[in-house]
Amino acid sequence: MQHGAHPPSASQAKYAVARVAMPPRFPTARLLTSTRPHRLLPSRSSPLSPLPSASLSPAPRALRLPPPLLHRGARRRLLPRGMASASAAAPRPHAAAEAPPVGVGGEGAAAPRRLALEELPWDHSFVRELPGDPRSDAIPREVLHACYSKVSPSVKVDNPKLLAWSDSVADLLDLDHKEFERPDFPQFFSGATPLVGSLPYAQCYGGHQFGVWAGQLGDGRAITLGEVVNSRGERWELQLKGCGKTPYSRFADGLAVLRSSIREFLCSEAMHGLGIPTTRALCLVETGKSVVRDMFYDGNAKEEPGAIVCRVAPSFLRFGSYQIHASRGKEDIEIVRRLADYVILQHFPHLENMKKSEAWAVEVAERTAYLIARWQGVGFTHGVLNTDNMSVLGLTIDYGPFGFLDAFDPNYTPNTTDLPGKRYCFANQPGVGLWNIAQFAGPLSSAELISKDEANYVMERYGTKFMDEYQSIMTKKLGLTKYNKQLISKLLNNLAVDKVDYTNFFRLLSNVKADPGIPENELLVPLKAALLDIGKERKEAWISWVQTYIEELVESGIPDEERKAAMNSVNPKYILRNYLCQSAIDTAEQSDYEEVRRLLKVMQNPYDEQPGMEKYARLPPAWAYRPGVCMLSCSS
Q1: Is the Cβ–Cβ distance between 444 and 455 less than 8 Å?
Q2: Which has more confidence, 301 or 372?
Q3: Roughly how many angstroms between the first and final C-alpha of the chain, as a whole number?
Q4: Closest alpha carbon to 206 in 151, 248, 253
Q5: How far apart are CA 302 and CA 259, in angstroms?
Q6: CA distance 24 to 447
Q7: If DSSP codes are grouped into helix, strand and coil, which group holds residue 3?
Q8: SS3 call for 278
Q9: Nearest CA to 497 among 125, 94, 27?
Q10: Are 287 and 156 in contact (CB under 8 A)?
Q11: Could you tell me if 227 and 236 are in contact, meaning their C-beta atoms sit under 8 angstroms apart?
Q12: Using an 8 Å Cβ cutoff, are 273 and 604 in contact?
């Protein structure tokens, strides 16, 4: 998504309501405890091929595959290191044929040799195997019949500084940690000095933004340097975000500011710490130059420090990467097929011997459902779930005005642009995910990669997978052995009514003992720190819920300490609350970067107690509810 651009105008917003069906708004209990998937289809006003009916058709016989597509052991073996160890995370990609077999890992194998920047084993399969733009300038324009445009970083720097870095991401690349100490490291990762072996380009894609087809979007300020193939055969793309204009910048400057770059850097690594599939962040560099931004789109633009994040992922392909070519008709429909073949070969090799296009579409839907179920589990709200911000690998991508729930509010949206309709609020995310999957299935159907019945089955699998995963997550969060719809429904209702902190409540819940003999006046003692300022009537409601919960704990038969350990492994103590980000931003803008680094360290281990770090688990202070902290715009 091209941040820094203005939000949709009033006329565009009106058009969105008139032309595109919004995802339904469900009451919390119905949305999050229903056993039936929500059924959403693309708008018939979409420029892409609409799917044929208003219901999900039965699965074609050839696609009746039991979830998941691979058994857990096989899928686990395919996971790249550094991705969340989950059944929906990206499978291990192929290494390029010419990639050197450096230090192949295995039981008892020697650690891979650590590399200098000049030794990184680059490959450029995306550029080599897919059609590109014949022009190499950065003049904004419509780019036809191409998946990318070769373009070099053009950002101006003045004594750039390395502010923060991730050693674990360096390990993905076999990069020697000592490279971070190089005086010229900031020059390379600001884009001011080209990395030896890189071949920079910006990707072309389109998308629906707030439900409205936006046409060509593309990497307006992100430039991919290429793919590094590590000693384990894993393929990792390196991308600089905020390093200058590309043909897709439209009227924006292609730059990024420090505040948004800190947020993206920290949240990329925080989500990985939570075990949620995500793009990663290698480093954060301040450019030494100022960037002008109108943070609230209110005419009060000001200068802010410029910065660049180096993002890392197996691929940055999005739903919109397929939509843009299908929207251009027969002339570009072959590109949809080539993109599908490319991503299956490089990132879904386990599907090569199947009816691969259909199986791939199903797996994209399942990964997306898996991802969003995990967002709901930790209270994460993305804020801008446009189709150009949806990864075909099922990764969290494009951290803009995101937010984690503080007080539980199903209608919470962290994005000021989303306030009028709250399309992307917390409770709507599962439904929006399905709507986006429908938009993704449209181009595949247009390209005859899947039939219309198979497209409907793809959406059906999304709904089933989401409910399976969400119910499993909530069962684990409560430390139970089986899903209890009524118990969870009442809990979510209580949390919403009393505006209870979502994260702290579940962390404290592990302290409740499976003892039906606890006196009534002591039942809420373990939850006292979360249940603040509740009146007598609400206290009775909570006592009733805890009594029922204890009955379930007794029935489960799990010893208290064993259950507590299991619950604390899925209920984080630390989340990247917006006010914590803002505190780090405030100090960084005063040239003190230690808070960014401390916060990174805490968020890398969010399930651990981390004695001495308790302040990072505190509730937001009063100042955290001011504009620009609890809610943000897309301006970055």
Answers
A1: yes
A2: 372
A3: 11
A4: 248
A5: 13
A6: 29
A7: coil
A8: strand
A9: 27
A10: yes
A11: yes
A12: yes
Among 275, 274, 269, 277, smallest CA distance to 572 is for: 274
Q: Which backbone phi and psi does 533 adopt, to 5 degrees?
A: 55, 45
Phi, psi of 608 (to 5 degrees): -85, 155
pLDDT band at 377 (very low <50, low <70, confident <90, very high): very high
Q: Which residue has 């429908």 as its token pair?
A: 438
Neighbouring C-beta atoms of residue 491, cutoff 10 Å: 26
Pick the closest to residue 115 from 226, 230, 237, 239 (CA basis): 230
Distance of CA 271 to the CA centre of its chain: 8
How far apart CA 129 and CA 126 sit, in angstroms, is 6
The residue from 123, 388, 398, 468 that is catalytic is: 388
Residue 294: per-residue pLDDT: 80
| pLDDT, position 419 | 87
Cα–Cα distances in angstroms (integers) from residue 546 to residues 506, 516, 567, in the given order: 13, 10, 16
Residues 131 and 462: their CA atoms lie apart, in Å, by: 31
Q: What is the pLDDT of residues 441-476, one digit of tens each?
A: 999 999 999 999 999 999 999 999 999 999 999 999
* Identity at 497, one-letter amino acid code: V
Q: What percent of the chain has pLDDT over 70?
A: 82
Lookup: tokens for 95: 């290494």
pTM summary value: 0.85
Alpha-carbon gap, residue 385 to 414, rounded angstroms: 12
Mean pLDDT on 303-322: 97
For 321, 342, 400, 569, the CA distances from 223, given in Å and listed in that order, are 15, 20, 17, 37
Would you call 388 a catalytic residue per the annotation? yes
Tokens of 126: 């995306």
d(CA 599, CA 229): 30
Element spanning 201, H or E: strand 201-203
Six-digit token pair at 201? 């380009």
Pairwise CA distance, residues 571 & 277, whole Å: 17
Secondary structure of the chain: what % helix, strand, coil (to 5)?
40, 15, 45
